[in-house]
Automatic annotation (TrEMBL):
Organism of derivation: Edaphochlamys debaryana
Lineage, broadest ranks: Eukaryota, Viridiplantae, Chlorophyta, core chlorophytes, Chlorophyceae
Location in the cell: Golgi apparatus membrane
Leader sequence residues: 1-23
Protein name: Glycosyltransferase
Cellular component, GO, one term: Golgi membrane
EC number: 2.4.2.-
First-level EC class: transferase
């Protein structure tokens, strides 16, 4: 039997055998008309997203970037993020800072013209049935973003509060979107929008052999170079930054992941604890299963690495990230704090690709923190994007970009965007 067909049948079988458990029926509806138990069925049913999601597929094709990895192999790649249909004020601010940072990370496109990371972002709009992605497109189109809807009646509420109906449905939207890109043969960099980028992370991913690269909430040392068959145990991953290479086994991973959520229908553990299973805490299931079966052969099928905490920091790893210098994988790092002057150290910031803001209890506190980190970076290091490594694109640009890189230097000296362009022109 063809693999995709088998996969579809396995998922269907799971659906058929899964019935709402008693616990579900006893638990209170989490919102009017939206019982937790109906979520998986809503997602597969008539009111849920269409499979294949046509608009999403078109957006992925339009936004994909053709790149060469360090081994000279071609990859197609797209950035993806989820967004509510009507983002409320705090989210709107965060979304626009997120887009602005991606917009300011520039590189020379295949046509020799300036290109930007935000022009390769697909925003998946978590939309109620029949709603369009127009509001997102109006708010984000000037950054080159393309929006496509993913429908569910669970998105009729715009409250993405922890354990609420829309929050729970978000897991389904995320994995379905990943599946859409991976099954088109396009690598995905899936991003939460409560983060700000400082340099282009794509060259870093393309230098690595790991098929799946994910960030973590732990300030601990790890190796993100040698591909591993399992995720390190006892190291909480954060799927808010997740790179997945489009391989047949990656498609299967995403399919399994979705099926795990469908099966978790019976694991609703109450209003206060919500779902025992959601996207992030089920992510490692596939890897541990595959590793148990294949042991040291597992990396051949699908390898995974947790990204270095000093390069991909977040607020859980320290207000200024995490120091893991000279530590062995698994060793506890040192959380970095603000200096007496209220800033992070510039040499620490130079190694950052991004800063992500989980581990903040009050949602509205995230934006001021990210804005401060952005201002700090611009003041002490330089413009966003100025320390980016070159990106090798299929069909050219590569040589010119190497010159650009040499001219702007990653030696750490801050240069303005205008100055780096002047240097680049001189280098040509
Ligand atoms: C993006 O670039 C513009 C134009 O150079 C600049 O005004 C703005 O501060 C930058 N924003 C970020 C977040 O880097
Ligand atoms: C969506 O549109 C269809 C066809 O126009 C209509 O039958 C259906 O009632 C609509 N659903 C909602 C939730 O508005
Ligand atoms: C990071 O740790 C190393 C090794 O302990 C130390 O030498 C260095 O000063 C630390 N960096 C900062 C910024 O604290
Ligand atoms: C930062 O603060 C944390 C918690 O107070 C502490 O454990 C850590 O050692 C501090 N880091 C540095 C570099 O002093
Ligand atoms: C941001 O920086 C300003 C000025 O340095 C400071 O007053 C404010 O407390 C900071 N806010 C956060 C959330 O860090």
């Amino acid at each position: 039997m063809e693999q995709p067909l088998r996969l579809a049948m396995a998922m269907l079988a799971l659906l058929c055998v899964t019935r709402p458990g008693e616990a579900w029926q006893r638990s209170k509806p989490i919102a009017e008309g939206l019982k937790a138990a109906t979520l998986p069925r809503d997602f597969w049913g008539d009111a849920g997203p269409k499979f294949p999601p046509t608009e999403l597929r078109d957006a992925i094709r339009a936004q994909q970037l053709r790149v060469l990895d360090a081994r000279g192999q071609q990859r197609r790649l797209v950035l993806m993020a989820l967004i509510g249909a009507q983002p409320e004020a705090a989210n709107a601010g965060m979304w626009s800072l997120f887009l602005e940072s991606l917009h300011n990370i520039t590189f020379i496109g295949a046509d020799g013209k300036e290109d930007r990371l935000s022009s390769h972002l697909v925003a998946v709009v978590m939309a109620p049935p029949n709603a369009t992605a127009d509001a997102c497109q109006r708010a984000s189109g000037h950054r080159g973003v393309r929006c496509a809807p993913m429908h569910s009646k669970f998105f009729s509420t715009n409250q993405f509060t922890w354990w609420g109906p829309a929050w729970a449905a978000l897991s389904y939207a995320k994995i379905s979107s990943l599946l859409a890109a991976l099954s088109l043969g396009v690598d995905v960099l899936f991003l939460d929008s409560d983060q700000v980028f400082f340099k282009n992370p794509v060259p870093y991913f393309l230098e690595r052999d790991g098929d799946v690269l994910v960030s973590s909430d732990a300030c601990m040392a790890r190796d993100d170079v040698v591909p591993e068959g399992d995720l390190p145990h006892g190291m909480p991953v954060n799927i808010g930054l997740l790179y997945i290479r489009a391989k047949p086994m990656a498609v299967r991973m995403a399919g399994n992941w979705l099926a795990t959520l469908v099966a978790s229908e019976t694991r609703w553990v109450g209003q206060t604890q919500g779902w025992r299973f959601y996207d992030q805490n089920t992510f490692h299931f596939f890897f541990s299963g595959m590793n148990a079966d294949f042991k040291d052969k597992a990396p051949k099928y699908l390898s995974a690495n947790v990204l270095r905490a000093d390069r991909f920091p977040n607020l859980c790893t320290g207000h200024c990230g995490c120091n893991i210098t000279r530590l062995k994988p698994g060793a506890e790092g040192v959380k970095m704090n603000l200096t007496a002057g209220g800033t992070c150290k510039d040499d620490v910031m130079r190694s950052w690709f991004v800063f992500h803001s989980p581990c903040v209890k009050v949602h509205s506190a995230k934006l001021p923190i990210l804005k401060n980190l952005t201002a700090m970076y611009q003041r002490l290091v330089g413009p966003i994007g100025s320390l980016s490594e070159p990106l090798r694109l299929v069909g050219g640009g590569g040589a010119a970009q190497h010159k650009l890189s040499a001219a702007t230097g990653s030696g750490g000296k801050a240069v303005s965007v205008a100055e780096s362009k002047r240097r680049w022109l001189r280098a040509l």
